[in-house]
Amino acid sequence: MAVTGNVVYNYLGASGLKVSNICLGAMTFGILKGSLPMFECSTQLDEAKSHEVLDKYVELGGNFLDTANVYARGKSEEIIGNWLQKQQRDRIVLATKCRFQMDASDINKGGLSRRHIIQSVEESLARLKTNYIDLLQAHAWDNGVPIEETLRTFDDLVRCGKIHYYGFSNVCGWQLQKIVDFSKYNRLNLPISLQQQYSLLCRQSEWEEFMVCKNEGLGVLPWSPLKSGFLTGKFKRGEKPDKTQSRIGFYNDDETKAKQIGVTWSEFAANDAYWNLLDKMGNIAATHGKSIPQVAIRWLLQQDVVASVIIGATSVKQLEDNMGASTGWELTKEEMTVLDAASPRMSYYPYEMIWRVNGPDRFNQFNRSVKI
């Protein structure tokens, strides 16, 4: 671990690549009408405001950007590409993704086939105005393609220098283990990261996916660390969210659209456990002189499987607040325990039993297995 200015730099998985422990996610960059509703949201940023956020991010020491070809149908990548022209490219670790349908009129413009991955990389490189991608991520599993085809394509792209590393996102445990095992036993370049939704309100991946990451040396990149705004403390019990201030508010009257961002106001509005968690976060934040979002992000940063937390900023002020979680303070062991206990965590069989019977007395530091 290295510290420079306002951020900490961690190795990304078992690779030699170092990234700031706060990654700037670019899903909020670019406005696209008539596309997915999330890219029409009032909190989306135009190019000028996106560049302001990017400038402040690197000024604060950040070096890790995450985007995807599907974000505003390429506009996010274009915005970053234009900004990169004014930067020293080799000081930025640039991640993007491929998998989802980019053109509804072309049946081959989606998925993880060799054809589409290579086409996606060439198109992303053009939009990003660079000749290499530091981290290419499969945005989700693809049942239509043998995993061998996908992994051999990623390996070829690493070997020819188009990408430096690859990772996966939004996969389950057996899929991730299959990815690692095939790559390992066929002597292909190995994945280095898993980008997964993870927060105090979304902890399912702790049961299996993160066990694979610890065993196999993959760094976790949590997305939606504030659960679309639910962990910011800006919502009040009994009050509907403002439509202009958050994605939750923007989608509040349309449950169908809300499901596209994976969460709805009705899920938590009448949930006492959620409000209890926020109260405890507020108390801990006050103790440290920090904000509730900083507590949510700090909790993630203190998970040993996490390499960098992906934040999405809609203003310089919000960015500065989120970056304040990076270094200079820590949650105590007792505070981590309080948050763990207040955070909803379902007990599923067989995971609960696996964790219970492999407790601290069955931990062997010389065996690459999960430390409970």
TrEMBL record:
Mind listing the UniProt keywords for this protein, alphabetically?
Oxidoreductase
One GO CC term, this protein? cytosol
Q: What are this entry's molecular-function GO terms?
A: oxidoreductase activity
- In this chain the NADP-dependent oxidoreductase domain maps to 21-342
Gene3D superfamilies in UniProt: NADP-dependent oxidoreductase domain
Query: What InterPro entries does this protein map onto?
Result: AKR_Detox_Biosynth, NAD(P)_OxRdtase_dom_sf, NADP_OxRdtase_dom
What Pfam families does UniProt report for this protein, alphabetically?
Aldo_ket_red
Annotated family:
Belongs to the aldo/keto reductase family. Aldo/keto reductase 2 subfamily.
- Protein name, entry field: NADP-dependent oxidoreductase domain-containing protein
Which species is listed as the source?
Potamilus streckersoni
